Each structure stands twice: as structure tokens, then as C-alpha cells.
Fold this protein.
Amino acid sequence: MKLLVAVKRVIDFNVKPRVKADGTGIDLANVKMSMNPFDEIAVEEALRLKEKGAATEVVAVSIGPAKAQETLRTALAMGADRAILIQTDDEMEPLAVAKLLAKVTEEEQPGLVILGKQAIDDDSNQTGQMLAALLNWPQGTFASKVELAGGKVDVTREVDGGLETVKLNTPAVVTTDLRLNEPRYASLPNIMKAKSKPLAQKTPADYGVDTAPRLTTLKVEEPAKRQAGVKVADVDELIGKLKTLGVVA
């Protein structure tokens, strides 16, 4: 079975984003970029399924600027077999991404599409669900455990008060949560090998998908800074301040 893994290039999670002075967006100049952490978990899970013998090939796909090649090379260094970059400098909304991934899926015919439950830059949490709807495939979201066997995939997810497991017929779409696994580090030899692995380059026009944005960002601004707290000497002083503020009678 072939596995398709979608990965996105985002601001590294260790970097504090800066809002542009004119409020039109996030300043990406000279900012460290990395693979979306949820997508990194998706790559790791696909590789583990292949290592268990449940899959034969792992294909990574990304949609974004030319520098997204670096993200795909990271996936290849982790162990993916080949990669596809749909290159565009346009701002891509979840629906456009889902439509492009649907086209790639129709072309590649994987048994499973795995992707992060959301990207940490926009936190939309929409692409996986939209992709499943476009393909008319079953979906398992927020996966904390994935078991693939016999043409079916069991997806376990955390819900209020416990765990919920759904059994899906393949092909299916699975989105990954944090507790699913811990991604491996790419070794230096694998990083070198990744440079020679195949990486196909496409454009949205190759798939005939309209990627025009349907939303307009009016303004981006930083959240208000939190006010400093106040230390109290004892419980009596705390209660007195709470009464003063009207929190307690």
C-alpha cells in the first residue's frame, strides 16, 4: 500500500512570530522555518507503518514556495521514498490545499493519506476534513493511535472522558495528534541520501485547480500584553484584595 503524507513549511515552533509594522501579516524575513510539527508526526507514522510491513511506499507532498523543497528534503531524510512539490508563491487557503491534495491523491492512488490535524501558523484544522469530503473517503481525525491491517485502519482519538476508536475502510484520510508518536531525527547519512531522492515539481495549473483566496485578511495584530501580577504576603491579604476587586463578598 502506498501512503501519501502532506507536509507544510511553517515558522519554527521555537520562534516568536513578529507582526509586520503595517499590520498586513506576519514578518517572515530571516525567520527560521521548519516542517509543521503535526505533519512531522504524520511522516513518522507513515514510516513506522512501512517498517511494520503495512505499507510499501511513502510519498511526501507539499504546497508552497520553492523553499518548501527544504521541508520535503527533511521528510526524505527521515525516510520518505520520494516527494512532490506543488510550487506557488500565492497565499493558500485550506480549501485550495485540499483540492490540490485531492488531485495528487487521484493521481497517486494511495491507500492512506496522512497529515497533521492542523498547521501551527493558521490553526485552521480544516484541510484533512475537506480532503476526505472531496474524495468521499472515510476520515479519522486527531489520531493518537493508528493500526493498519487487512484493508482497514483503526484510528484511536482522545475524547472527553476517554478514548474513541473508529474502524475505517481504506482508502482513508487520517489526521495526526501530538500523542501519536515522537518523530525521529534524520541522521547525517540520511540527510545526504535525501539529496538524491526524487522530488517532482508541479504547479497548481498542472492540476487545473483555482487557488484564488476567498478570504481577505483585514488586519493582523499582536495580543494585548498581560499585566504584571501582584504578590501577597498571606491568605488574609489575598482575601482582602479579592473583596476589594469584588471577586468574593
Summary: Helices lie at 37-51, 68-78, 94-108, 127-135, 188-194, 204-207, 235-245.
